[in-house]
Write a structure and sequence with these properties.
Elements lengths: L1 H10 L2 H15 L2 H18 L6 H7 L3
């Protein structure tokens, strides 16, 4: 289904694609996505500071 939607977007002219992008931005900024956006920003800052788990650290935490 995503492929079909992408095909539709590709058929739109530049101005209409910008309108779609504007409305998608509005949706993402709504409250139901705010917590997800905050989590992404938090993780982004952690990654920038190098605060990420290595593969081995994850397995050690899981005691596997």
């Amino acid at each position: 289904m995503a492929d079909v939607k992408m095909e539709v977007l590709e058929k739109l002219d530049r101005e209409d694609r910008e309108k779609v992008a504007y409305f998608v931005t509005l949706l993402v900024n709504q409250a139901k996505y705010r917590s997800l956006k905050e989590e992404i920003e938090k993780r982004r800052r952690e990654v920038e500071r190098g605060e990420v788990l290595e593969h081995e650290e994850i397995w050690k935490q899981l005691n596997v």
